[in-house]
Amino acid sequence: MAHVAAKHGENHAHGHDHGHHDPQEMKILGFWFFLISDVILFSVLFATFIVLRDNTAGGPILSELIKMPGVIAETFILLTSSFTSGLAVLAMNQGKVKQLISWLAVTAVLGASFIALEVYEFIELIHEGFSFTTSAASGAFFTLVGTHGLHVSLGLIWMVGLMFQLKKRGITDVTRGKINVISLYWHFLDVVWIFLLTIVYLMGVM
């Protein structure tokens, strides 16, 4: 009888374990849903830009205002930041907290440099008469590129917060999960930028 009761208790425990979900796994799953929603958001913005790109209302044409050296510099900086974020994950997997924080700091500096160049680009376009309200084409451009820039800025704030957490707590299951997520997020932004580079800038120039 005691054996049957023990067996029943063991089965009950196993059933309880099967019903338990790892909080970190749930957070990562939730983040994947967030990325999917972001893919949908950017898909809509890209489609809107493609439809409206020629609707200049007699104002300046974007293709005549694009300065490719600046765009290439932005691309190089952002892609380099993707590489350094990968080095941060590598340092984390090796248990090297200082290197992890250092690579995150480098990634953040590169991301901030990208935003600075993008803001400069926006200011130059506005001075040329290509502002958000100039035409449907300019509105679509600033909405699409600005949304990506906003995502990068939010990623920078998030990254700085993680560096403070790492200094205080070190590498734990919680911080490890957050680093994996921010790295995934950063790579996603790089992919979006490649589409921006191709559709908005390169196709615009051609």
Overview of the molecule:
This protein is mainly alpha-helical. Helices cover 85% and strands 0% of the residues. The model is unreliable at 1-18 (pLDDT under 50).
Q: Can you give keywords for this protein?
A:
7 helices; 206 residues; disordered N terminus; mainly alpha
Write the layout of secondary structure elements.
Elements: H1 2-18, H2 23-52, H3 62-65, H4 68-93, H5 97-127, H6 136-169, H7 173-205
Helix pairs in contact: 2-6, 2-7, 4-5, 4-7, 5-6, 6-7
Radius of gyration: 23 Å
Helix content bin: over 70%
Q: Give me the strand/helix succession.
A: HHHHHHH
Class from secondary-structure proportions = mainly alpha
Mean pLDDT: 88
Report how far apart the termini are: 82 Å
Count of alpha and pi helical runs = 7
What is the total tally of β strands?
A: 0
Instruction: Give the DSSP E fraction (strand runs of 2 or more residues).
Output: under 5%
Sequence stretches where pLDDT stays below 50 over 5 or more residues: 1-18
> What assembly state would you assign to the polypeptide chains in this entry?
single chain
**Structural shape:** elongated
Largest sheet: none
